[in-house]
Amino acid sequence: AYLARRFLPDPDTLTIAGVAATAPGERLDLFSARVQGASTAWWRIADAHRLIDPAVLEDPPLQRLKVPLPEAGG
User: Fold this and answer.
1) How far apart, in whole angstroms, are the C-alpha atoms of residue 56 and residue 58?
2) For 29-71, how does the pLDDT look when each residue is reduced to its tens digit (9 = 90+)?
3) Residue 60, preceding peptide bond in cis (omega within 30° of 0)
4) Contact 33/2 with Cβ under 8 angstroms?
């Protein structure tokens, strides 16, 4: 199987909808479902923080994360 390479966007070009705090023990997919309405959109939050490993955003708890709007066509 072949997957097309995905280039990460420059976080400075993303439109940030807001900032939200994570709950204690909340995984990034659950945070994404709560603030974006889709658990599968966690990668947008990781992109906004210029991170490849999403687990970095799960610790420490209660941190405030930027929540970007979806890109046009994305």
Assistant:
1) 6
2) 999 999 999 999 999 999 999 988 888 888 887 799 999 998 7
3) yes
4) no
Contact between 28 and 48 under an 8 Å Cβ cutoff? The reply is no
Stated length of the chain: 74
* 44/57 Cα distance (integer angstroms): 12
Geometric angle at alpha carbon 69, from 66 and 71, rounded to 5°: 125
Contact 48, 10 (CB under 8 A): no
Determine contact, residues 68/14, Cβ cutoff 8 Å: yes
- 24: DSSP letter: T
Tokens representing 9 are 């966007």
**Each residue's pLDDT tens digit, 12-23:** 999 999 999 999
Q: Can you tell me the distance from the alpha carbon of 15 to that of 18, in angstroms, rounded to the nearest whole number?
A: 9
